[in-house]
Amino acid sequence: MEDGENRPPQRRLSNPAAVTNGSKIQLPASCDPPGPQNPPEQLVWVVFGATSDIGRSIAKAALSHHDLVTTVGQSREDTLITTRSPFRAFPDCSLSLLCDIRVRSTVEEVIQRSITHWGRIDIIANCTGYGVIGACEDQDEYDIRNQFETNFFGTINIL
Known about the structure:
The chain contains 5 helices and 4 strands; from the N terminus they run αβαβαβαβα. By secondary structure, the protein is of the alpha/beta class.
């Protein structure tokens, strides 16, 4: 628009305090930093794929904050020893289990055993995954099906 043309009037934002009728806006107490008046709450985690790099890092971070963690390894690749090994410094705060996320009953068993052991679950982290490098048309049917069953149906089973 040129300087001489008619312009629509500009809208001015009102004072935020006026919008709330004078009441003070506050964040919920859960946003306050931990302290004597607001001690941190211990959370219960289930980390599927806890033997992968990202899963192990998430589980260790939760354990370092004194949370309780069920670490879940892949039953077709891991053992309970390899699943427990990275978390042996936290024996009272970690429970290690094995599961094949492609099989719904094994996922349900992990959830039930976690609830039985800890009393509840607050956070579930799915760090599982399967990938084959290369063009889809160059992969055999077994690899394609396994990848889809793990990445898609496995996630559905966890949900």
